[in-house]
């Protein structure tokens, strides 16, 4: 069986333009509020040209979310059982904050999907994400049992990290308006490190 021909430079460029346009539209208007026509216009392509690369809006969204979830879960996967627990958790907090700074549209895209009831991500949340959270919650529990960090609810600890870091992306306009001329990411790293360090450092 002969291999399918490799995509040309123009085909790669058009696919990238479609995905970039879709990210902008989906993160702004949500899945339901975005149309194929809007994505095509944003990408500078005709609708038939877009449909040559992706058969539907759902197919575009699925490809975006697959890449996003890998990126989003990598910092949690990186929690090292052999590392120093407090250092590992604080590094995770900082990586999540950095992702909110560097990938705000992706964060809003994920948040919009969850707010809508995760109609396209429900299976992934119930399988891949749940398995990863169970694994890392068990690791956190082991560190707590060994007295290496203060005891708290491991899953709520993860939820709070997600909430406190992704807030900066999901509520970007509100955060920047209230912060005025101060860049919110100037002080946020130190604030979050102090918060979690005080919370998790074992009492002597």
UniProtKB/TrEMBL annotation:
**InterPro entries registered for this protein in UniProt:** Homeodomain-like_sf, HTH-type_TetR-like_transc_reg, HTH_TetR, Tet_transcr_reg_TetR-rel_C_sf, Tscrpt_reg_YcdC_C
Q: Pfam families, alphabetically?
A: TetR_C_3 (PF08362), TetR_N (PF00440)
Swiss-Prot/TrEMBL keywords: DNA-binding
Taxonomy, superkingdom: Bacteria
Q: Which residues form the HTH tetR-type domain?
A: 12-72
Q: Which SUPFAM superfamilies match?
A: Homeodomain-like, Tetracyclin repressor-like, C-terminal domain
DNA-binding feature ranges: 35-54
Identify this protein by name.
TetR family transcriptional regulator
Question: Which source organism?
Answer: Parasedimentitalea denitrificans
């Amino acid at each position: 069986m002969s291999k399918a021909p490799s995509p040309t430079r123009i085909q790669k460029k058009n696919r990238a333009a479609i995905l970039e346009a879709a990210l902008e539209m989906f993160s702004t208007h949500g899945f339901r509020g975005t149309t194929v026509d809007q994505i095509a216009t944003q990408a500078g392509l005709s609708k038939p040209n877009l449909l040559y690369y992706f058969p539907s809006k759902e197919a575009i969204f699925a490809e975006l979310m697959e890449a996003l979830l890998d990126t989003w879960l990598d910092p949690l996967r990186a929690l090292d059982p052999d590392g120093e627990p407090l250092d590992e958790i604080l590094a995770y907090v900082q990586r999540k904050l950095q992702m909110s700074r560097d990938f705000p549209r992706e964060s809003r895209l994920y948040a919009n999907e969850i707010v809508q009831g995760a109609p396209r991500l429900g299976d992934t949340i119930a399988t891949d994400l749940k398995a990863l959270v169970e694994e890392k919650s068990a690791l956190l529990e082991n560190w707590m049992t060994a007295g290496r960090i203060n005891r708290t609810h491991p899953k709520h600890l993860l939820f709070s990290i997600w909430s406190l870091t992704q807030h900066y992306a999901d509520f970007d306009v509100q955060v920047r308006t209230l912060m005025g001329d101060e860049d919110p990411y100037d002080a946020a790293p130190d604030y979050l490190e102090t918060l979690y360090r005080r919370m998790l450092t074992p009492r002597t």
